[in-house]
Amino acid sequence: MLTRIDHIGIACSNLDATVEFYRATYGFEVFHTEVNEEQGVREAMLKINGTSDGGASYLQLLEPTREDSAVGKWLAKNGEGVHHIAFGTADVDGDAEAIRGKGVRVLYDEPRIGSMGSRITFLHPKDCHGVLTELVTSAEPPADHSSAEH
Ligand code: CMX
Ligand code: CO
To answer: Is 125 inside a domain boundary?
Structure first.
């Protein structure tokens, strides 16, 4: 079950300048940065809010590390802007299979590694009314409130 907006992915040509824009304009601070060579991105995660399922919602600022990456190709064609949306789920494998069963192309046979050790997959934008859509299960399992002691 998809339970939150995990992040909005924003393609930028200069990560440091874009991070500074979000800090100076809105006061959002960098929560985490990393390079994901498989995806061809240098990225910064800005945490916007926690969510009731124990997860969080972020902005994901993405600078390509190579021109032939997904973000590099997209930037060359469109310029900077919103690149994808990502929904959070406790079960990316199950949700991806269920969505594949509805006739939507899931881009990976098995989820791959995303930000902060999460497991991610993508749905083809042409099957999602023009929106590249990512599914994410974070590395940290959501807090199990049902077993919490009071
Ligand atoms: N949003 C909406 N449409 C998109 C898109 C996007 N981000 N990227 C491509 N498209 C559209 C193009 O406009 C094009 O449409 P037209 O044929 O009408 O012009 C069509 O999809 C094909 O685009 P393309 O430029 O030829 O690109 P590819 O088919 O080579 O790749 C995609 C498209 C979605 C398969 C590729 O971007 C991909 O594999 N994405 C998933 C991985 C990814 O985005 N990684 C970076 C983020 C990492 C992270 O979030 O952690
Ligand atoms: Co993403």
So the answer is: yes
